[in-house]
């Protein structure tokens, strides 16, 4: 814990602040004004993610990150992506008739939101979190979920990015 | 702010330090630094790494010596009364002085002698007093010795 060891007004001949925690004099070196660009996320083109809702997809492959103007960007937790369904659970004829969840098929191009990444994600309090895999939840064009349930845990950073509905549906949030 | 503990070494993790790793089975691991994280991912056993808390606890290093000393078992002996003689009576008997005891003995002897005399006189004249009171009615126990009583 930094404690303020007196103000500058108290400095006299024999300096009181022998235990100064932070230097009270300005350094002569020029301060850096550029900010280091932080590479968070790391979901990009051709990245595969597990699909953890009950929409029927198992593995989706990222095609585009929607927040970026260019295709060579990276997506992180809470970013919307366009993806292709690479592997899906087999859809039987009976479930096709049911109205519940839209079942996607292999080769479908859908939108999704990233809910877990293997790359570290920093939180506002400085903590860092990393999952064991990359995961996503499928969406429709209006940012609504396609599935009705989520199986597995999601990152709490989703809430900050505005995906409260997904966070509330998730069985566990870390 | 909560100070967490490291899942590998048992160190304390202050806010904004360290990493949090969520495994595929949803188990959460916290690491105080890259050293702990790396060893964990190399699947090292913290019980074999000498500077971890797990190892220290297992090999009883440091503070646990005091704890071990406290747990010395002592069996306490209790004085108990038995059915025939409750605790108070036993204590009373034990605390009798020698004088009292000898007095009691004398009293018992004289009593026994007198009773014996009575018995003999009774025997001498059995017909004279057939169904009368045969001497003072004494129980067998009393005749045998008044001292060994309750």
Automatic annotation (TrEMBL), chain A:
<dbReference type="InterPro" id="IPR000218">
    <property type="entry name" value="Ribosomal_uL14"/>
</dbReference>
<dbReference type="GO" id="GO:0005762">
    <property type="term" value="C:mitochondrial large ribosomal subunit"/>
</dbReference>
<comment type="function">
    <text>Component of the mitochondrial ribosome (mitoribosome), a dedicated translation machinery responsible for the synthesis of mitochondrial genome-encoded proteins, including at least some of the essential transmembrane subunits of the mitochondrial respiratory chain. The mitoribosomes are attached to the mitochondrial inner membrane and translation products are cotranslationally integrated into the membrane.</text>
</comment>
<dbReference type="GO" id="GO:0006412">
    <property type="term" value="P:translation"/>
</dbReference>
<keyword id="KW-0689">Ribosomal protein</keyword>
<dbReference type="Pfam" id="PF00238">
    <property type="entry name" value="Ribosomal_L14"/>
</dbReference>
<dbReference type="InterPro" id="IPR019972">
    <property type="entry name" value="Ribosomal_uL14_CS"/>
</dbReference>
<dbReference type="InterPro" id="IPR036853">
    <property type="entry name" value="Ribosomal_uL14_sf"/>
</dbReference>
<protein>
    <recommendedName>
        <fullName>Large ribosomal subunit protein uL14m</fullName>
    </recommendedName>
</protein>
<comment type="similarity">
    <text>Belongs to the universal ribosomal protein uL14 family.</text>
</comment>
<dbReference type="GO" id="GO:0070180">
    <property type="term" value="F:large ribosomal subunit rRNA binding"/>
</dbReference>
<dbReference type="InterPro" id="IPR005745">
    <property type="entry name" value="Ribosomal_uL14_bac-type"/>
</dbReference>
<dbReference type="GO" id="GO:0003735">
    <property type="term" value="F:structural constituent of ribosome"/>
</dbReference>
<keyword id="KW-0687">Ribonucleoprotein</keyword>
From TrEMBL, chain B:
<dbReference type="GO" id="GO:0003729">
    <property type="term" value="F:mRNA binding"/>
</dbReference>
<feature type="domain" description="Large ribosomal subunit protein eL24-related N-terminal">
    <location>
        <begin position="1"/>
        <end position="66"/>
    </location>
</feature>
<dbReference type="InterPro" id="IPR000988">
    <property type="entry name" value="Ribosomal_eL24-rel_N"/>
</dbReference>
<dbReference type="GO" id="GO:0022625">
    <property type="term" value="C:cytosolic large ribosomal subunit"/>
</dbReference>
<dbReference type="InterPro" id="IPR056366">
    <property type="entry name" value="Ribosomal_eL24"/>
</dbReference>
<keyword id="KW-0687">Ribonucleoprotein</keyword>
<dbReference type="GO" id="GO:0003735">
    <property type="term" value="F:structural constituent of ribosome"/>
</dbReference>
<dbReference type="Pfam" id="PF01246">
    <property type="entry name" value="Ribosomal_L24e"/>
</dbReference>
<feature type="region of interest" description="Disordered">
    <location>
        <begin position="109"/>
        <end position="150"/>
    </location>
</feature>
<protein>
    <submittedName>
        <fullName>60S ribosomal protein L24</fullName>
    </submittedName>
</protein>
<comment type="similarity">
    <text>Belongs to the eukaryotic ribosomal protein eL24 family.</text>
</comment>
<dbReference type="InterPro" id="IPR038630">
    <property type="entry name" value="L24e/L24_sf"/>
</dbReference>
<dbReference type="GO" id="GO:0002181">
    <property type="term" value="P:cytoplasmic translation"/>
</dbReference>
<feature type="compositionally biased region" description="Basic and acidic residues">
    <location>
        <begin position="112"/>
        <end position="123"/>
    </location>
</feature>
<keyword id="KW-0689">Ribosomal protein</keyword>
